[in-house]
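User: Quick sanity check before I run a bigger batch. Here is a single chain. Can you write out its predicted 3D structure?
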Amino acid sequence: EETGYKIEDDQHTPNTCCVEIPVSLGSKIRTISNISMWEQLSLAAFLQKYWADNQVSCTVTFDPKTEGESLKPALEYFQYQLKGVSFLPKASGSYAQMPYEKIS
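Assistant: Done. Predicted structure follows.
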């Protein structure tokens, strides 16, 4: 914490720590809170088809209230376009030490 970053012990792996690194993207950059699950999946499918030889690593964030019921149809629609995909609910605090958290 001498560096000014928040550092804490990893809650899942011994002898490991987590460091919070705040990032400002500016006001004209769209963030994940403004991008639908469907747009994220479409972008991943595009990259899978035109850019990657192997699997595109993709974690799609979704709003459980407005998009939760669309998970099954989305997987069915993209089943032959993606080799793999993970889903993460947009709700903050879904679990400890979330990979991306909105900061103010």
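The first strand starts at residue 6 and ends at 9.

User: Great, the batch can go ahead then.
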